[in-house]
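Module 6 notes. Inverse folding takes a fixed backbone as the condition and produces residue identities as the prediction. Think of it as a translation problem where the source language is geometry and the target language is the twenty amino acids. Below is one complete input and output pair. Work through it position by position during the lab.
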């Protein structure tokens, strides 16, 4: 007999209120009553904690882990994406970036080191622990960001961007990997969404923050665009100190984190993850064990999907202020402030996508839908006659492409098993996304203003390819699941494992 998840929640909570003492026997009785047929219900059955107690522990992890990682990522996006805001605030004129491809070069040089250093950075995070590792690199790149404000010529910016790529390389894949180790496959989608929504807020209000900091123009004889870099770097350094205490390590060492879970609560998380996919405790590391999953073509298709999505999102985030200013004819202040509304719509679509994906255990159809939203918006953004219509197209493109990022993260996290395969998949997924950042930095060129037709065409091609890749991959997943149901195939080394469509 099957019940909906919401009915299960209500049953568990009502039963829990009737427990007069907190005894293990009472909790076990409750769990037996609610242990029905579905995998979701089996996952929520625990020999020690009632359903309500389980949710309290998980929500405590949410507040401590997801929010802290999201705030760090917020500062990361602000620090790497403030070039557009600084550019229209006077940096282009002062550093003579309108000569040739100087601005695009500064955008691009960030990504080669960002991509190359991601796999070793993910290993370092596992070896040193994410708390120490992530807090340290956040402090270092915040210090480096301050240095951007003192650049004297455009070549100084190149060296700083290369170093920034090295330091920020460790954040995204490490956080993607860390969140995947803490949550079951159908809890992680909403967590990736919450993590990335905080980042979207950075992209949304980064322009407004930059406009405010730009008003410091003339203070101590420095231009406003320099203060954008200096003050945002100071904020990042302050964030790193809080991160050192608030970040947590992997589940097997959770009881060692400052004022977090006790040993029994840690054991509950390990039991829950093992029940979901049996990989909570990492295998002993060997290079062969880490690299062997690279022979699996599926993780390369997932990585290619990341490349396609990030190509579009990066191009929008880096060039949107310039597109609004030079392409749509808005003023500097309007261009910096009008960045926010499209990202607010993106946040709404992200939350909706994450809820539906976790609720119905699907990822592929949501990726396709969001890509179609972007495909509707791109021609409007490129070919509409009025600025207001083109700005409406910006809404659709920004929402559709950005909403696909947490969904794609959940898609890859749901369909791999094993700690080291997960680590490699996360690194490849984010690394190919970094390569997408390189291509995204080239598709909207200043000489293509005001229509940016080559950039629009490239973005349309990327979204079409996302649809094709997801259809092919999900089609294979459906076939493999049917084979496993018939006992003809073992998936990812586990008879109980099934792919998420």
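Target side of the pair, the amino acids:
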């Amino acid at each position: 007999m099957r019940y909906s998840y919401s009915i299960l929640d209500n049953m568990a909570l009502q039963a829990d209120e009737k427990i007069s003492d907190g005894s293990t026997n009472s909790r076990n009785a409750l769990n037996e009553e609610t242990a029905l047929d579905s995998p979701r219900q089996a996952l929520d059955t625990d020999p020690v904690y009632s359903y309500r107690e389980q949710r309290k522990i998980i929500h405590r992890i949410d507040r401590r882990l997801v929010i802290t990682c999201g705030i760090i990522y917020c500062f990361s996006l602000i620090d790497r994406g403030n070039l557009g805001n600084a550019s229209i605030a006077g940096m282009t004129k002062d550093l003579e970036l309108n000569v040739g491809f100087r601005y695009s070069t500064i955008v691009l040089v960030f990504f080669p080191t960002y991509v190359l250093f991601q796999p070793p950075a993910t290993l370092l995070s596992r070896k040193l622990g994410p708390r120490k590792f992530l807090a340290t690199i956040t402090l270092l790149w915040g210090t480096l960001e301050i240095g951007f404000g003192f650049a004297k010529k455009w070549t100084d910016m190149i060296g700083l961007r290369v170093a920034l790529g090295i330091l920020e390389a460790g954040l995204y894949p490490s956080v993607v990997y860390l969140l995947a180790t803490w949550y079951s496959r159908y809890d992680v989608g909403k967590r990736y969404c919450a993590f990335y929504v905080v980042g979207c807020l950075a992209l949304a209000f980064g322009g407004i923050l930059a406009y405010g900091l730009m008003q410091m123009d003339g203070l101590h004889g420095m231009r406003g665009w320099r203060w954008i870099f200096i003050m945002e770097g100071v904020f990042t350094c302050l964030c790193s100190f809080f991160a050192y205490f608030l970040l947590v390590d992997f589940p097997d060492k959770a009881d060692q984190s400052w004022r977090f879970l006790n040993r029994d609560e840690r054991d509950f998380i390990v039991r829950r993850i093992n029940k979901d996919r049996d990989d909570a405790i990492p295998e002993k590391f060997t290079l062969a064990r880490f690299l062997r999953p690279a022979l699996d073509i599926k993780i390369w298709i997932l990585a290619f999907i990341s490349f396609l999505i990030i190509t579009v999102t990066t191009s929008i985030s880096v060039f949107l202020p310039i597109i609004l200013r030079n392409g749509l004819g808005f003023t500097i202040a309007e261009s910096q402030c009008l960045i926010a509304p499209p990202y607010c719509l993106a946040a709404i679509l992200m939350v909706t996508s994450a809820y539906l994906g976790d609720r119905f255990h699907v990822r592929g159809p949501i990726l396709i839908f969001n890509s179609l939203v972007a495909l509707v918006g791109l021609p409007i953004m490129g070919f509409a006659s009025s600025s207001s219509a083109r700005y409406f197209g910006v809404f659709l493109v920004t929402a559709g492409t950005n909403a696909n990022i947490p969904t794609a993260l959940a898609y890859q996290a749901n369909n791999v098993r094993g700690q080291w395969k997960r680590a490699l998949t996360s690194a490849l997924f984010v690394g190919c996304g970094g390569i997408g950042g390189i291509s995204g930095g080239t598709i909207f060129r200043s000489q293509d203003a005001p229509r940016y037709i080559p950039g629009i065409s490239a973005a349309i091609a990327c979204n079409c390819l996302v649809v094709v890749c997801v259809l092919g991959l999900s089609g294979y997943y459906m076939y493999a699941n049917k084979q496993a149901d018939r006992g003809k195939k073992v998936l990812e080394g586990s008879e109980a494992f099934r792919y998420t469509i």
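Reference fact for the lab report: Residues 363 and 407 are 6 Å apart (CA to CA).
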